[in-house]
C-alpha cells in the first residue's frame, strides 16, 4: 500500500518514464516494466504504470474504474486545460462528445473522402519517385494528414504550425518536466487557437463549422464545441504521420515483405495494422483509479494515477510472437489505437490515408530504400522524427 507517497511492498522501478534514456530506448524500458510486475510504482514520476498486454487491455475496457474525466496527462495544468475534450471525459459526457465527432469520422461519413485521398496519394508518389531521395516523415508520411486534415476541419492554420502545435500538445501530456515546459507555450497557443475559432473563420461544411453549429443548437455546449476542435487536429495528424513513417521504414527494411505486398495488395490492411502495432504512435495515457483496485496482488488506491502503456503492451512477448518483427501475417489484436470506450475515434481516417499511400505505391515503386532514422523524443508520442528514403521504379 502507499504510505507517505511511496509504494510499500509493491513492484518498484527507479526509471523516469519520461526521461531521455527511457524515450531513446523504449523497447528496453517497456521490457523492464513488464518484467517488474503487472502494476509498477515509479517514484521518480509519482505514478503507477502498467505495461503488460492483458492488464492494459483490461484497464482500458474498465472505463468505469480507470477514468479519464480528471485528465489523461501526468501534470495538473494540462489536465485543467484539456477539460471538456472528448479524450478527457467519462460516461454520458464522453458518449455525447464522441457521437458528435462520429458524425464526421465514421467509416460511412468518410466514404466521400476516399477518392480524394487516392488522387492526392497518386500525385505524391509520382513526385517522390522523380526525386533522388526525400524525408520519409515530413515529405511522405505527413503529406496526406496535413493537407487532408486542414481541409476537412476547415480552419485557417498553416501546415507547419499545425504540426508543431499538435506535437507540442502531446509533449504537454507528460509530467511537468523540461520537455513539457518547453512545449507549453506552443501547447497554450494550440489551446487558445481552438477556442478562438468562430463561425466566421471556420470553412462552411467543415468539421469545425459542424461543431460550432452543434454548440449553437445546444447539442453540446459552445465551450465543449471549441474544445473538441482539439480532438480533430492533434490526434488526426500524429498517429497517422508516425504510423505511415513506420510503414515506410518497415517495408524498406524488409524488401521481401514489400514484394509480397505488391504481389498481393489484399494484404494492405494487414500492413497498416502491423505498422501501427509496431510503432504505437501514442505511448499511452494516464487514468485515475476511481476505487481501490487489486492488480495481480498489488493495490492501487482510489485517486491514484496510473499510466497505461499501449506501446509496451504491443511489444509483450506473451501476446505476440517476436513482437519486434514486422509481419504481414500476424494474428490477433493490438492496442495501437487504444481499446474500449476511448479507442481512437480517428482510426478509420488513419487507415484510409495509409491504404491510399500503399495503393499508390504498389504499381509505381519496385524498391524502397531507407536510411538514417532519427527517433522522435516526446513525452507521449513515439516513432521517427525523420528518416531518409528513396523510391526505385
From TrEMBL:
- SUPFAM superfamilies assigned: Cytochrome P450 (SSF48264)
Superkingdom to which the source organism belongs: Bacteria
- Source organism per entry reads Mycobacterium conspicuum
Keywords per UniProt: Heme, Iron, Metal-binding, Monooxygenase, Oxidoreductase
User: Record's family?
Assistant: Belongs to the cytochrome P450 family.
MF-aspect GO terms:
heme binding; iron ion binding; monooxygenase activity; oxidoreductase activity, acting on paired donors, with incorporation or reduction of molecular oxygen
For this entry, the protein name equals Cytochrome P450
